[in-house]
Amino acid sequence: MNILVLGAEGFVGKNLVCALNNIKQNKDRRYPEIIIDEIFGYDRNSSEDDLALYCSKADFIFNFAGVNRPKDVSEFIKGNCDFLGRVLAILKGCKNNCPMVLSSSVQATLEGRFADSAYGLSKKAAEDMLIKYSEYTSARVMIYRFPNIFGKWARPNYNSAVATFCHNIANDLPITVNDESTVLELLYIDDLIEEMLMCLMAKEHRISKFSRFCSVSATHKVSLGEIVKLLKNFKTFPETLMMPEMPKGSFESKLYSTYLSYLPKESAIHSFETKSDSRGSFTELIKSEKLGQMSVNISLPGETKGEHWHHSKWEIFIVVSGKARIDMRKIGSDEILSYTVSGDAIKAVYMLPGYTHSITNLSSTEKLVTLMWANETFDSNKPDTYYEKL
Q1: Is 119 a catalytic residue?
Q2: Which of 249, 270, 342, 371 is at 20 to 30 A from 29, Cα to Cα?
Q3: Catalytic residue chosen out of the listed positions 42, 54, 119, 262
Q4: HSE of 25 in the Cβ direction (CA atoms, 13 Å)?
């Protein structure tokens, strides 16, 4: 299958081309039904000869070319409608009736606040043109009226407010929010791309059986105020180490991935506060309100650390470098449970509630490195930690 992506250098086009290349190069093996021979990418720097050649060879076309922030409103028709007309004329000329996806917009409804949208009018005109073409040629077409799209590689101050907010907050630039209560319907780029791959397998989600209009169901309705609040919370992570709750598939998870893609070089690395003494050091790494915290403990040669117990708190010790002995004794008992572990065969040892416990570096020359997970973050007002030697 030869696939033509119109607008290949744009936000959506670039993400789509990357996904298609992963399939073509057998890096993404989730879609055995999709066999790709060539991927043709057309953008504003391509020539008319390129367009004619690609259209003649294409077995499937994604049209993500368009204009959404021109200097003059007349460019809407030129970029969103006239261009499609040229493509359809070429296809007719070479008798290529291959399937086509058209990226339209919710503004093409021309309803409510979009009633006088010049952008919406141009998108509606393109939809009508493609529908007439389909009726004439019987070509399979799929028209998507996308809401606001967000994700990596979107251009700030161009593609969406989310891109602008992510870029500005990540780069310590001011943002402007006119009305925090304004609700946006948002579509994440990976969900959009997944639907495009469904189109290649003729599994697109049509509005109704015989409709030429399709949709992506995985959208999120979020207020501008909520978006800004989340982004400002993400910004504080290097200081608080508190990882926001981000369930799989949630808007929060998708927004955080988007935010990270805008971090400048100097913000993609951060240091930790390390507490050191004569025995070694202890550094908190990540905290979560629901999932506890992860820390790294470094013990100097021959040193023993710990010797305390908890009523309810429990921990997991994982030695990743060096050799250690981990001892536990139930409060009120003389029996000691002892475990020898090393980074050569990584194992998890559970620190049991009601057991005083310690970890000893068995090496006389090497440091002992242990990852430690606790089921709750440390609360100085309720530490649940009591000193007692084994």
Answers
A1: yes
A2: 249
A3: 119
A4: 7
